[in-house]
Amino acid sequence: MPENILMLQNAQIFQRDNLVLSNVNLKIDEGEFVYLIGKTGSGKSSLMKTLYGDLPLEKGTGSIVGFNLNTLKEKEIPFLRRKLGIVFQDFKLLNDRSVFENLRFVLKATGWKDDAKMKTKIMEVLGKVGMETKDFKMPFQLSGGEQQRIAIARALLNDPDLILADEPTGNLDPATSVGVMNVLKEIHDSGKTILMATHDYAIILKFPHKTIKCEGGELFEVMQQRS
Ligand SMILES: Nc1ncnc2c1ncn2[C@@H]1O[C@H](COP(=O)(O)OP(=O)(O)OP(=O)(O)O)[C@@H](O)[C@H]1O
């Protein structure tokens, strides 16, 4: 029986005092891959931010990877984020250190201490995204697609229960986007649950999954296809 990873019921998503989405009902089970689509400004990022604790859930009920979004305290947010792998459009790598050091930085910040174990974990996640030979490179020595693979590797470091990807192909050309999607496909095939915001319809056609649309301040499921 798949476990419920994410649940929002009658939720309202706000940016300060502005109501961005209302009547949000969304359930994601373990192992699903779900797209969140919608025009610019329709609320995709605001919904994602609510899910990773960057915006409070003020109306409705919500839970994610075992955390109650209604009662989430500031000090719990780092623990929530350890169970989430978050990938952004603009990669957000630290440009002053190598790929290896970018990943080690996250492990150390999340409590890892043993150097040998950190090295093994870093090489394992780099292997998952096909970047095991790039560990010594600086981010600016990598292409956009390579940087996004590193960002995906970083998201995998703490074995997350759910990956939230906000426009992960938004800065990439079509061929590079397909390469990054193949990486996400492999990660999904290995059992991970993924929620990905995108407005790249070519990608959705090539990699079909359940798709939820933000439109007119509400969410709708637009198609249900087997992946
Ligand atoms: N920091 C903020 N403060 C106030 N309003 C905001 C803020 N960020 C976004 N908004 C507003 O919230 C609404 C939803 O924006 P959001 O960024 O969630 O949309 P989006 O669907 O992710 O768009 P895009 O595809 O361009 O990223 C928009 O009307 C936007 O102007």
TrEMBL record:
Pfam family, one: ABC_tran
Biological processes, Gene Ontology terms: cell division
Keywords carried by this UniProt record: ATP-binding, Cell cycle, Cell division, Nucleotide-binding
Domain ABC transporter per the UniProt entry, residue ranges: 6-226
Function: Part of the ABC transporter FtsEX involved in cellular division. Important for assembly or stability of the septal ring.
Family: Belongs to the ABC transporter superfamily.
Protein name, UniProt field: Cell division ATP-binding protein FtsE
